[in-house]
Structures are given as C-alpha cells and as structure tokens.
Amino acid sequence: MTAATSRAEPLPTRRRVLLGAGSLATAALAGCLGAGGPDDEAAEPVDLTEGQECDVCGMAIADHFGPAGQVFYADGEPEDRDGPARFDSVAELLVFHAEREARGWEKRAAFVTDYSSVAYDLLEGDERLHISTHAAAEDFADATELHYVADSEVHGAMGEDFLPFSDREEADAFAEEYGGEVLEWGDVAGRT
Fold first, then answer.
1. What Gene3D superfamilies does the annotation carry (predicted)?
2. Residue 98 in 3-state DSSP?
3. Residue 60 CB: number of other CB atoms within 10 A?
4. Nearest one of 43, 54, 51 to 76, comparing CA atoms
C-alpha cells in the first residue's frame, strides 16, 4: 500500500491577510472617491422642449412663458429619473433648490434660460407683459454666472420671476425699460 501524499498550500499568515484586506479597502475607497462616476462628469444642460413637466407645479415647461431651469444634484437625485430637476420658472427652481439643500442635497450644476443668447419676445396676456420661453439645450447657461432682472413688469410662467441675462448691459437696459433691479446669483438665491 502506498501512502498518498498530499501537498497542502501553506496557510496565509496574519500579516498577509491584513495586507490583502488593507489593499482591498484602499481600492474600494479609491473607487468611491476617484474619477469616473456620474457625479464627477461635467453636467450639461438638456433639452426641455418635449413635454417635460416642472418638478414644482407639474406644468409642461415649453408650453408656458418665462425662463426655464434645471438643476443637477450629486448622488443621483432626483432618484425617480435620469437627468436634472426641471422647472418652468427661476422662482420655482430657487424654492425647490433651497428645500433640497436643507435636506442635504448637493448641487452639481444649475442652468437657466439666458435671454442674452436667444431672440425673445414680449407678449401681452392677462393684463400683463410676459417673456417668451426658451427651453432647448443651447438656450441655457450656468445659472451662477448670470445677471437677473428682479421685480420687473415682465412676468414668467408663475407671475413675477427672475429674468436671466449673461450680458450685464442687456440686463441693465431691460431693467431700465421694464422696471426692476439687476441682481447676481447669490442675491437671487437669498430671496426665496
């Protein structure tokens, strides 16, 4: 009878187990913090002309007057769909954003209609002057870099609104002609 010989692998040492666990933890942490995830990608404005509804009032954005807006949040918010939170007015965007910020949501990017980059119309309706809506992707600009006409006689979808312009001189001229004052993003965000 011959004895069977077995060749056993040596058991890992405590040092080897700890080193392996440490390497795995480091790789996992680097994956969480490193580039490549959706939160690290630059947000770009999306088109809101295909019947998308405002996340505050539920109205179809492209069917109403005034500036449109969108906010991208970190951590995939809002969870019910891909893409940004959407709005048919800057005023509603600001209220929604303030509420989400209080819940700990982090803004990645915010975009609003830039009236300096579109051929807008002023239209009379229900005894008020309204500004046309522009919600194609190319009509949006970084909300934090624009100048806003507040308290003018020109209204958006929900009444008085903040009308954004990338050109400060155009914003000043609009306010001079239609009333109101020109504010920057930090001032507008504080008026919610």
1. 3.30.70.2050
2. helix
3. 15
4. 43
